[in-house]
Amino acid sequence: MENQLFTFTVFSENQVGLLNQISIIFTRRCLNIESLSVSPSSIKGVSKFTITCFGDRPMMERVVKQIEKRIDVIKAYLYTDDEIVYQEIALYKVPTEALLDDSAVEEIIRRHNARILEITREYVILEKTGHQEETEALFIELEKYDISQFVRSGRVAVTKSPRELLSMYLEEQELRKSRSRQ
Question: What is the full DSSP assignment across 81-142?
């Protein structure tokens, strides 16, 4: 089976140690986490982990099941790139003289739709939002201008579903509870 990039979304209450528990699940299977970001979700009090990893679907589905066994995890989902809308952000720090001395830098910035966030006498900080290939392409073009710092965030993603899948899952759980009480 062919390896492809999968995106996991894991919803949980914000608990100490959960990231360690989740990363161990990947480590035990010799799977490398490509990117990871954690943020509040659209549901108050619930955090959303977005994790990317290369693998085959059967292995990734087993990983989701193992993640869901963690007590603090509410629900985990697995997606391919065509099921989600995703982005990442990258910051680049280049010497100001490169921008002033070579008009090609300005052309590169415009072509890549990057933004200038800060300019000082010593450096310029650029921001690029997009897919990894796009942020990497800008990095490659700026390399010759002596990038002094570079950082790229983990993937952030939302599903193409009209509603948050976790909201639907929680509603189903509440409905089951109310039926069992009757």
Answer: GGGEEEEEEEEEEEEHHHHHH-HHHHHHHHHTT-EEEEE-SSEEEEEEEE-HHHHHHHHHHH
Domain that holds residue 91: 86-182
Both 43 and 121 in a single domain? no
Residues 13 and 39 in one domain: yes
Going by DSSP bridges, is the β-strand pair 115-119/73-79 parallel, antiparallel, or unpaired? unpaired
Q: What is the pLDDT of residues 81-125, one digit of tens each?
A: 999 999 999 999 999 998 888 888 889 999 999 999 999 999 999
Tell me which residue has tokens 């039926």: 179
3-state helix, strand, coil in the chain (%, to 5): 40, 35, 25
Q: Please check whether residues 61 and 92 belong to one and the same domain.
A: no
